[in-house]
Design a protein that fits this description.
47 residues; mainly alpha; 40% helix; elongated
Length: 47
């Protein structure tokens, strides 16, 4: 879980609660997706 945190976007802050050491994949995906949307990372993706 600690490897999933971004400096400005903590995993526990996203869900307003603490989770086990290995959260379910759908929660990880939700957290990353929300971070990407808030920080407009799509502009840095080149295909």
């Amino acid at each position: 879980k600690e490897c999933l945190n971004f400096v400005d976007y903590l995993f526990d802050k996203h869900f307003d609660q603490s989770f086990t050491k290995f959260p379910p994949r759908n929660l990880i995906y939700d957290s990353i997706q929300e971070y990407a949307e808030q920080n407009n990372v799509r502009q840095y993706i080149y295909i």
